[in-house]
Every structure is written in structure tokens, then in C-alpha cells.
Please model this.
Amino acid sequence: MNDLHNGRILLTGGAGLIGSTVLWALNRRGIDDVLVVDRLDESEKWKHLVPLRFADYLDADDLTESIECDPDSLGPIRTVIHLGACSSTTECDADFLMRNNYEYTKRLARWSLEREIRFVYASSAATYGALEECLDDEAPLPSLRPMNAYAYSKHLFDCYAQRQGWFEQICGIKYFNIFGPNEEHKGEMRSVVAKAFEQIRQGGVIRLFKSDRAEYADGEQRRDFLYVKDAAEMTLHLAESGSVGLVNVGAGKAQTWLDLVRPIFAALEIPERIEFIPMPEHLRAKYQYYTCARIDRLRASGYNAEISPLADAVGDYVRNYLVPGRVLEPTDAPYARTATTAA
Model:
């Protein structure tokens, strides 16, 4: 076991969607000896940090200089949770992705291992490529075929870590479709829940892609959706439990786009209006109609908490964050609960 109360935690991507929610979850445990690392640039994700507690902040570009030139300046680091990356699946600058996602992770992982620091990092479900079945975290890495530069940059580090034998000591997390508060800075990379909420606010209707497969009705395409609050708890469990290797983090359940968006109307207490539009030509060859994480390894590691039901999670997100325009606060409830399921 790796006690997260013992020693400082270095959290990269700490102002982002998953990172700030991990910090929120740490704060709820009474942990604030955290060095937050991120690139704030011109976005407003700095607002995510305002209500949260942490020991210090460091720009991501300064971290590599610090670990090479003055590692003692970072404090007594015992755990690294590396979530910082360019997560845009449409980013076309492959050189930037290789520097930012691949090389950066290599340097930070090597530094951690040399000092016997617990290292947990974000891989991605995007590394599975176009697979729609057998999304198994024990699948041979050479068999995977990522379909964009972002996914490849993540996959390349997974392969490198495996060749180096690092998976005997480190843990890589393959996040599936994460949604929830503190994602507004992601623009076009926001979840469908956030985008659909904006569509309803502007025109009272949600638009989804039509299906081009006879076996799937419109809106019945399926994904593994996971609330960010659950993703944060799973992340801390993996960091603390000493789990190693690649681990899927998802709900372990495939649900439809209709399952995802109907609770938005319910939370807003307005009639459903859903329209289906043709899928853009450039997406048709890459579009996945079914994804579902096998989470056997997560459960085998000892994670036995209930995963928030999708309708409850969407309702919590809409009512408590999207409608009032709020960010996560340390006093917010840790799990999604509707009025009918609240304890």
C-alpha cells in the first residue's frame, strides 16, 4: 500500500478535468500537501483551483528543469500522479504531441523510478484504436492500432514502459469517456453532456449523429461513460493500492447516447427534443459504434465502490454545476445522487 497521507503528491494536469477532480478528492480526504503542475496559458481553468487546497503550483515547462537541476526544491515527493498532457484527439502537430505526451512522461517516470517514488500516469482508451470488442487492458500492446496522433503518443509510452520493464512498478490508467464538472475549458473536446446542455440552452434541442449501421438505431450507438467523480476515486485507489501495469478505468457498461442525453432534459424539467443529423463524411471510417471497458483488473485490485448510475451522474452534473456555472468545491458530495436515491 502507498499511503497518500505520507509525503507530498506531485499532480500534473492539476487544473484540468480529471486532475482538478483528483485534487478535489484528495482535499476531501484531508490531503493538501500537493504540488500542482499545469499549463494555464490563456484558458480559465485556473478557476478550478480557486476553491481547492494545495501546497504549491509549478508551470509544466519548469517541472523538467526542476527535476534535473534542483529536485530537492519540489519537496519530499512520495507519489506522482501524472495526468498532464495535450488531450486533443484532433491535434495535428505530432512533434508537439511527442514532446509533450511521450518524452515528458518518459523523463518524469524515469526520475520517479530512480527515487522509488510511486508513479501513476494517464494512458488512454484511445490507444485501442477502432476496436469495438475486447477492450481488454491485458491485450498485447503490439496488436493495438491507434487512429490519431494523440492516441499514438500515449500508446508509444505504454510500449516504451513495457520494454523497460517499468510495469512491474508503475501504473498506467486507460480512461474511457469521462464527463463532469471542470471541463468547460476543453472547448470542442468537452463531453457530449456539456455540448448538449449548450444546445438545449440555445435552441431547446439536442442533435445526435444518425446511425449508418442497420444493427444500431439512431441514438443507440453505445459508449462506456464514466462520471469524473468516480474516475477520481478510481485513480486514487490505484495510486494507493500499489496496482501496476495498465488498468482500464470506465463504468464497465456500454450505454447509448440516448441514455446519456435524456437525463439532461429530466434534470432541466423540460420536454425531450432530440434530432438526428447525418454523420460527417470524415468521421464515418473512424466512428465507433460500441465501446465498453473490461474493468476486471480494477475490481481485482480491490476497488469495490458502487459506480454512479449514468442518469444520476448526468443529473448531478447538470443541476449542480452546468446550470449554476459552478466548479467543484471541497464540500461537494463525492458521489452522484438524485433526489430519489440520496441517502
Observations:
- The radius of gyration is 20 Å.
- Residues 339-343 have pLDDT under 50 and may be disordered.
- Residues 8-180+226-250+293-305 form a domain with the Rossmann fold fold (CATH 3.40.50.720).
- The first strand starts at residue 8 and ends at 12.
